[in-house]
Amino acid sequence: MTAPSVAAFVRRWNGLDLGPALMLSVAFVAAVCVAVTLAVILWLSVVDGIPGDVRYNYTLAHFREILFDGFTYRVLGNTLAFSSISLVFAMLLGLPLAWLVERTDFPGKPVIFTFMTVGLLVPGFAVALGWVFLLHPRVGIINQLLMSAFGLSEAPFNVATIAGMGVVEGLSLSPVVFIMTAIVLRAMDSSLEEAARMNGATLWETIRKVTLPLARPGIIAAGIYVFAIGFAAFDIPAVIGLSSRIYTFSTYVFQQMSPTEGIPQYGGVAVLSVIMVVLAAGLSAWYVAMQRQAPRYAVVTGKGYRPTIIPLGRWKAFSVALVVVYFVFTQLMPVVMLVWASGLPFVQVPSAQSFAQLSWRNYQTLPADMIWAGTRNTLILMVLVPTLTLTLSLATSWIVVRSRIPFRGVFDFFAFLPHTVPGIVFSIAVWLLALFVLRDKVPIYGTIWILVIVYSIVRLSYGTRMTNSAMIQIHRELDESALMSGARVSGVIRYVLVPLLMPTLLYSWIWIALLTYRELTLPVVLATSDNQPLSVVVWSLVSTSSYGSASAVAVIMLLLMLPILLAYWLVARRVGVVGNT
Amino acid sequence: MIRIENLQVTYRGRGTTHHAVRNLSLSVAAGGFYALLGPSGCGKTTTLRAVAGLERPTSGRIVVGDVTVFSPEEGIHVEPHRRNIGMVFQSYAIWPHMTVFENVAFPLRRLRPRPSRDDIRRRVLAALALVQLQGLEERPAPFLSGGQQQRLALARALVFEPRVLLLDEPLSNLDAKLREDMRLELRDLVKRLGITTLFVTHEQVEALTMSDVVGVMRDGVIVQEGSPREIYNVPAQSFVADFVGKTNLIDGRVIRIEDGDARIAYVETPLAELRCVVDRPFTVGQDVTVAVRPEHVEILTSSPAAPLNVAAGVIESLVFLGNMLECHVRVGAQVLRLQRNTDQSLAVGQPVTLGFESTRLRVMPR
After folding, report:
1. For an interface test with B, which of A10, A13, A481, A498 has the most B Cβ atoms less than 10 Å from its Cβ?
2. A569: alpha, beta or left, given left = phi > 0 and alpha = psi -120 to 50?
3. What is the ipTM of this complex?
4. Which of A195, A382, A563, B346 has its CA 20 to 30 A from that of A457?
5. In chain A, what are the domain boundaries?
6. B160–A500: do the CB atoms touch at under 8 Å?
């Protein structure tokens, strides 16, 4: 190449705008990751023999095996019962609370919102552990107390049942219902309620005949959402039910994958995963349909109004007492139990004798290298996962919201898909992918990277929802004026979009970091002793029945979480948003 | 200089195609101020965005200065950031996370080679002085009034001395009083700098008062192009007459052409037989529309000598507009709109005789 042509090439290259190509490739990587992961599950469900083996052939045998197995239906029934009970409990607690906070002169509303958000973030396995200590038929202290007080020969409560786990799950999902319905109630035009009151309806009639029917699509949407979470839940059924062989879908799949005897039935696991995906996708489609229906009721009118606040009067003290009881039961008691159990050699009813036994022993005997490695892994994940998720989300949103690439909606579809797919299925899929497809070609299994990738893919639906809605709110002309001022697309993103998105990005970053911190479902399948985060350390201690040490690690985790929670609270207050899973 | 040749912009939706701009050609002389005027959805903004490079036309050719920026036959589509065009957006598009200074410095910092810090500072201050925003450099952009944001947008569009300036309804977000002041200020500034300007608006007053040439657009086509005076006084079609200023449209038919003078035509209308001065040949029997401006309809005080160009009617309503009186007169089935001095004593229900001057009647083929 002669000198002038090199110069010409460089000139051309400088003029070329690589921004769109870069965005497209990043968004493409995100979509491909999601698609490949799910494709692996589908493929393994119809393949015979050990995958990776050249002699495999296609078969429907796995489907036949699972679908003709009575136990599958028992697990399905269990799962449905479990999610229904949790739905009912979450609704019974979340709905009235949302109404109290949004529509009455209930005191201390910001405090309740804060507590509810914390409730979303306290790790599910920690809560579950607390409830085991309270209500387990053998060790649960409430059972012990009642048995000795009334001379019962049998424990009155058993948390290790479908109903017991459903209640615990419902308690931990009530903040989700609370936050989702509070938003619906806040957006509702209260002049409709006022009109009912003016026409002679009592308060109770107004709630029943006007408020609830108007908010119905929003409430049903919240219900489906919560039911779907319950359906896919892993932490609580695993910690409480697995040792008693009480299975829901997630724990059953998990158990099939790591059976106590025999080799794992990969085909069966894949088929169960496919079934879970199909059922969850159905719920998701229903949820989306409900959300679409909501505007038809014209709940949101957009005019400046202030909802009428109903004075509670003499009911105020009573409601405050109920809310306090709620927080004590759902959030305080399990945590207090963890702290209590972490100080004792075994769980016992508080007494002079048990207080005398309190010590730091459980903390001192913790496997220090495991804790250090776990802390290190958790911290690496908390930094890398939000960063990678938001990078992928930003690129996907730019393609979907800003570019004019044909079929850009496909990227949005794939980014939303992880929302539909239960977490355990994702981790299983990636596990199978790593072991049977990538193998030593891409030696990713056992490294922290496999966790970073899975976490990020799963959080993609949350990340893109945040970046999509934030980017839609940025006027397109702000981009265009930067283009006209001589900026390339990459410059527009760097100097205009990213600075304007910063509050949203910062808020989502911390939120994803917090979800990463409490995550157990994803690493429980994928983690090895080299890359396990703290949550898996707790899990492995629980599964070997080392409850004292498990509680100690869980308590350490809760303490470490405090500064991040504080950071979240400060940012959220500035951005003015409420958390969401 | 801007030249657009045979521009086509077509959107393909699901099974439908929408022609936003159809075979449009126009040219703006160097230093000229050209206004594209039309109702919303006529394709004027699409045309402007095609010049900017923000919209990709289906076919045609666009030349800015002496550079072809778009020509699919030659494989040319210059990216917007390389077109060297200043643009003021309808929303102003002031970046809210930057100060006034940073907003104006942004285009200079994108220049290659990048100007020195001092140079940037000098040019930003000069641009701010040009739009009378000196002293506000350090203010965050959101803390500006509507008029100041408008000026800032203009300073940012001019600071890098672009070849041409595009204005997309730049005054539509200002309140009425400010808009009037900014019209003249904007025009003076652009004329002083001698920058070629293409301007899009749906406000006929803006187009008439600011530009050298007005192109009236409808359904993706320029239906008439001319000086503001021509557009107002000699509209080529009833659409132009109606869109630019208020007008009365009267349907009729040519019944006679004056012997020896093809410039005089007699048109039979439901109101009266009208003797009109025409600027193009018509044939007897041709269906036409006669347009007459409200300010050109007379109310006769004495009874006319001949029944030509006269119609009798009754005042149906009077609307007080402050500086004038708008008067609706029913003549048979049609209601004509008239403008009168406010001091004229008129009453609803009063019978009046209307007179039409031949030179004020504009005959257009239907």
Report:
1. A481
2. alpha
3. 0.85
4. A563
5. 67-300+318-346, 365-581
6. no
Tens of pLDDT, residue by residue over A22-33, are 889 999 998 998
3-state secondary structure of A137: coil
**Residue A87 φ/ψ, nearest 5 degrees:** -60, -50
SS3 of chain B: the string is CEEEEEEEEEEECCCCEEEEEEEEEEEECCCCEEEEECCCCCCHHHHHHHHHCCCCCCEEEEEECCEEEEEHHHCEECCHHHCCEEEECCCCCCCCCCEHHHHHHHHHHCCCCCCCHHHHHHHHHHHHHHCCCCCCCCCEHHHCCHHHHHHHHHHHHHCCCCCEEEEECCCCCCCHHHHHHHHHHHHHHHHHHCCEEEEEECCHHHHHHHCCEEEEEECCEEEEEECHHHHHHCCCCHHHHHHCCCCEEEEEEEEEECCCCCCEEEEECCCCEEEEECCCCCCCCCEEEEEECHHHEEEECCCCCCCCCEEEEEEEEEEECCCCEEEEEEECCEEEEEEECCCCCCCCCCEEEEEECHHHCEEEEC
The pLDDT-based confidence of A185 (bands split at 50, 70, 90) is confident
- Under the banding of pLDDT at 50, 70 and 90, the label for residue B267 is very high
Closest-CA residue of chain B to A490: B81
Residue type, B148: Q
Write out the residues of chain A at the interface with chain B, using a CB-CB cutoff of 8 A. 14-15, 17, 475, 477-478, 480-488, 491, 495-496, 499-500
- A580 pLDDT more than 50: no
User: Cα dist. A221→A172, A215, A532, B7, B74 in Å?
Assistant: 18, 10, 35, 49, 55
Rounded distance, CA A230 to CA A252, Å? 14
Q: Is A1 exposed, middle or buried (0-12, 13-18, 19+ CB in 10 A)?
A: exposed
* HSE of A276, CA atoms in CB hemisphere, 13 A: 37
Chain A residues with CB-CB distance to B90 below 8 A: 477
CB B39 within 8 A of CB B202: yes
Backbone angles phi, psi at A540, to 5 degrees: -70, -30
Would you call B110 and A486 a contact, using CB atoms and an 8 Å cutoff?
Answer: yes
Which two three-digit tokens encode residue A372? 């250090």
- A480·B157 Cβ contact <8 A: no
pLDDT at residue A6, as a whole number = 54
**Angstrom distance (rounded) from CA A222 to CA A261:** 41
CA B220 to chain A, closest CA, distance in angstroms equals: 22
Q: Whose CA is closest to A192, among A215, A174, A171, A169? A: A215
Nearest to A196 by CA among A182, A211, A213, A176: A211
Is the CB of B157 inside 8 Å of chain A's CB atoms? yes
CB B206 within 8 A of CB B185: no
Instruction: Decide if B52 touches A, using CB distance below 8 A.
Output: yes
Nearest to B93 among A14, A481, A499 (CB): A481
Q: Residues of B numbered 64-123 whose beta carbons fall under 8 angstroms of chain A's beta carbons: which are they?
A: 79-87, 89-91, 93, 95-97, 106-107, 110-112
Q: What is the DSSP letter of A495?
A: I
Give the bridge partners for B364, in sequence order.
B289
pTM for the predicted model, two decimal places: 0.83
Which residues face B62 on adjacent strands? B4, B70
CB contact under 8 A, B93 and A485: no
SS3 state at A310: strand
Domain A67-300+318-346 bears CATH identifier 1.10.3720.10: yes
Fold classified for A365-581 = MetI-like fold (1.10.3720)
User: What is chain B's length?
Assistant: 366
Residues 278-307, chain B, touching A (beta carbon < 8 A): none
The reply to whether domains A67-300+318-346 and A365-581 share a CATH topology is yes
